[in-house]
Amino acid sequence: MILALTLIACGNGGGTDTSDTAHDHFDASTFFGDSCAGCHNADGSGGVDIGGTPSADLTTRVAAMTDDEIAAVLTDGKGNMPAQLSTDDEVEHMIEYLRETFP
User: Fold this and answer.
1) pLDDT tens digits, 43-63
2) How far apart are CA 75 and CA 91, in angstroms?
3) By CB neighbour count within 10 A (0-12 exposed, 13-18 middle, 19+ buried), where does 31 fall?
4) How far is CA 77 from CA 12, 21, 24, 25, in A?
5) Comparing C-alpha atoms, which of 4, 2, 3 is closest to residue 70?
């Protein structure tokens, strides 16, 4: 689980604008491409070496985690991965995207 979503941060380091305008238009797919795929690959396969730790394979890790566990990784970070999202709505959309993309 340490590798859970360890390196979702390889993109923009969580620089998501949480203003009402940006919040209303949060697109989890775009966020994944911009902020997650750099470490987890576009297909979620992970394995990218970041600081001596391979990024998590989301194709298996997402299914093994509860929504609360994923939310904690997204909001608090884990290992080499810093926090990424700050609003409940963004987290909910991201979890939904991850569950649909990596069942």
Assistant:
1) 999 999 988 899 999 999 999
2) 8
3) buried
4) 14, 25, 23, 23
5) 4
In this predicted structure, the answer to whether residue 21 has a pLDDT above a threshold of 70 is no
- Crossing angle of the two packed helices 67-76 and 88-101, in degrees rounded to 10: 120
Structural domain span for residue 71: 21-101
Burial of 78 (0-12, 13-18, 19+ CB in 10 A): buried
Number of compact structural domains in the chain: 1
Per-residue pLDDT, 30: 96
pTM of the entire predicted model: 0.75
Find residue 54's DSSP bridge partners: 49
CATH number for the domain spanning 89: value is 1.10.760.10
In DSSP terms, 49 is beta-bridged to: 54
